[in-house]
Amino acid sequence: MTSRGLGGASPAGGLAAELPTPPTISLADVRAAAARIQGAVLRTPTVPAPVIGRVAGCEAWLKLDNLQATGAFKERGAANRLALLTAREKATGVIAMSAGNHAQAVARHARLLGIRATIVMPRFTPATKVVRTESWGAEVVLHGETLAEAAAHAHALALRDGLTFIHPYDDPGVMAGQGTMAIEMLEDAPGLDTLIFPVGGGGLLAGCAAAALELNPGLKVYGVEVEGYPAMAQRLAGQPVAVGGPTIAEGIAVRDVGERPYALLKQLGIEVLVVPERAVEQAVALLAEGAKVVAEGAGAAGVAALLTHPGRFAGKRVGTPVCGGNIDARALSNVLLRQLLRDGRILRLTFDIPDRPGVLADISKRISDAGGNVIEVKHQQLFGAPTVQSTELELMIEVRDAAQGNAIIAAMEAGDYVVRRG
Fold first, then answer.
1. Bridge partners, 349 (sequence order)
2. Rounded to 5 degrees, what are φ and ψ at 240?
3. What mean pLDDT is reported for the chain?
4. Rounded distance between C-alpha atoms, residue 345 and residue 362, angstroms
């Protein structure tokens, strides 16, 4: 692969229209980025994940970029792009648009370099993300109801104040910085024959694919998107982009992919896989319970690809990053509980029972004798029961597996209880 180089970085604003032909990112560019960010960005470990490999039928390795100071891989691209600024650009300051990890990454590394940073965030941005970004020393401007409106305002401020716009993915300096992840993975686990990277705007996948395939042309490199936001897969297939809807993988819920990453991925012939929302939730839960790793939805997308396409990766040595761990505690709790329900390890039963002494005790004993553990009880006598002589009872029961749950239901039915499974 021939390099056009990154000298001078991209123009302020990072707009695709400024470069009709996107620059090629070479291994040399990525190695230069690695040298620039050394010491400012953590070299995270690449570790085997036998539990995930056993479930997926492959040898799985995880790159733990959720351990970065801001909890996500975005520091790599931000640190490299800021290091490429001219003295004049550093003196004037930078501006970025983001509702998440890119905001914190730019804020942190601007602070380390003594550069004034302004971050434009949509008004809907959760307060915790605003506070975290401000804690790194950036000035946060809340503007617009959408990411597009926030981006337009950021570009307007950049023009007005002479600030350098740091694009989250459509910038060769950012792409080269993200590509350092692939070099580290292949150095720490040289036996890998397949790599999977989540795709939002495409900067991570493009930078990593360029570096990895130059290091080892025999590698297979895939991207992965969630089913509600398959913008890059649609673009590469020549289809119109149609995305939308809620997703736990909000970090890769992108409509407008980067033109530079798109051109490079098309040139390299990279395939982008699509996974269902449920697989992302399953991956978050599997990482937490099986690998003891906390991942946000976007950060678990690579594992979701292993779970969704096991035949494609059977017997392979597959590396994928946990590229972010910034998941809300309540969201993580909900994901884990939902997965317990799906696995049959939490049983929700509803009864209409006669309103007489001893019935609740009998039900509890049958559950106990079968090895179940009641963790929640709802007892509705006044309004939920069909008659005044009966009571509606709803139980949440912790069980070992689906078979034990079925045994508990059988024990209830043996006692002539009518049970509805929730």
1. 395, 421
2. -65, 145
3. 90
4. 22
pLDDT in tens, 271-303: 999 999 999 999 999 999 999 999 999 999 999
CB 107 within 8 A of CB 133: yes
Residue located via tokens 């040595």: 317
What residues contact residue 104 under an 8 Å CB cut-off, 6+ apart?
Answer: 70, 71, 72, 74, 129, 132, 133, 136
| Whether 206 contacts 260, CB under 8 Å | yes
Q: Give the C-alpha separation, 120 to 6, whole Å.
A: 26
User: Which residues contact residue 56 at a Cβ distance below 8 angstroms, ignoring those fewer than 6 apart?
Assistant: 303, 306, 307, 310, 313, 318
In whole angstroms, give the CA distance from residue 280 to residue 301.
6
pTM of the model: 0.87
Look at the chain and count its residues: 422
Nearest to 395 by CA among 387, 407, 405, 382: 405
Helix intervals (H) in 21-170: 27-37, 50-56, 74-83, 87-92, 101-113, 127-135, 147-161
Confidence of residue 1 (pLDDT cuts 50, 70, 90): very low
* Rounded Cα gap, residues 341 and 125, in angstroms: 30
Which contacts qualify for 148-156: CB closer than 8 Å, 24 or more apart?
Answer: 148/256, 149/122, 150/97, 150/99, 150/120, 150/121, 150/122, 151/97, 151/120, 153/97, 153/120, 154/95, 154/96, 154/97, 154/118, 154/120, 155/13, 155/15
What tokens does 213 get? Answer: 């395939």
Residue 276, amino acid: P
Task: Return left, alpha or beta for 324; rule: phi > 0 is left, psi -120 to 50 is alpha, else beta.
Answer: beta
The upper half-sphere exposure of residue 132, i.e. CA atoms within 13 Å in the direction of its Cβ, equals: 19
pLDDT above 90 for 341: no
pLDDT band at 381 (very low <50, low <70, confident <90, very high): low
Helix (H) or strand (E) holding 253: none
Q: Are 159 and 91 in contact (CB under 8 A)?
A: no
Q: What percent of the chain has pLDDT over 90?
A: 77
- Contact (Cβ atoms closer than 8 angstroms) between residue 248 and residue 227: no
Q: State pLDDT tens for residues 391-408.
A: 888 999 999 988 999 999
Separation between Cα atoms, residue 81 and residue 117, nearest integer Å: 13
What is the pLDDT averaged over residues 119-125? 90
Name the β-bridge partners of 60.
318
